Amino acid sequence: MDIWGGIYDDGLSWLVANLERFNPQSDGQSDWKLSGKAFGELVFLLGNLRKRRMVLAPALQRLNAFAEKCLQAFDWQAAFSYYHNVPLLIGYAADFERNGGAGDSLAAVHARSWFKTSRVACVDYTPFRRADLAYNGYLVNANIDDNALSDALQRTVLFRDDAAVYFSWREMYAFTHAVFYLTDFGLRPALELASNDAVAAMQRTTRLCLAVACREGDLDLVAELLLCTAFLNCGHCAITDAAARLLLENRLACGAFTASITELARVSDWTDEERWKRCYHTTLVATLLAAVQTERRQVA
Asked: pTM of the prediction?
């Protein structure tokens, strides 16, 4: 079996095994900020897989059914009062439901209503978070078009051509997400919203950030940057090959990924809950990366 196909299957299996930890309304989940964020990121992954028309393996069917059930019972009005990232969750939820054939879902209706209020303008979001909002508004057709999305992205680090040497760790994450939104997670060419020169600069920045992330052993950032190399058509080079090896060689036996190789020595000491908290995000990203790599191999 292709190694990426194995990572994809194992990633889905691990997510299924930890399904209830993603439930934003679980009685056993005391930290709603964490569970809401994690659930939103799971829904984002599932929506992206739907758009990519990934084969509905049993594990993926179970994950989709879980997400649909949670969303049907979700109290959006209440969530807006106690979770600041609901606008991001609701956009991914609406996108997931629409791509499953749900049409104009309750999430989409609430999302457009929220985006039409003045609250968006009143909140002091960073450029990175404003790009987050613009992309989610774009997903739910909340009067946010390509121009509005492009304007939001122009204010992020994405178009800062200073060789990334001055990027902080937070800015590197802001960069990866801006690439995701620019390319609609690889579903449209970067050149639709950026010039040839700008895209070439983004490719250089991606490789440099990837080298830094590899040196630090940051598997979470490595996985995100490898997605960027695919979405920006960076091609293979020594850095991308080394990054892929670093990620693949440090996968846990259960199919999950820790956020950093520095955590590998402590994995055996973690409780199941700690392992989920420390592994779920990197595993979600690696699963999407595996799906993208599998997709690209099938097209090639």
From this structure: 0.92
pLDDT tens-digit profile of 30-52?
556 677 789 989 999 999 999 99
Q: For the chain, which residues make up each domain, given as ranges? A: 1-116+272-300
Burial state string for 157-173 with b = 16 or more CB within 10 A and e = fewer than 16: bbeeeeebeebeeebbb
Q: pLDDT, tens digit, for every residue of 1-23? A: 478 999 999 999 999 999 999 98
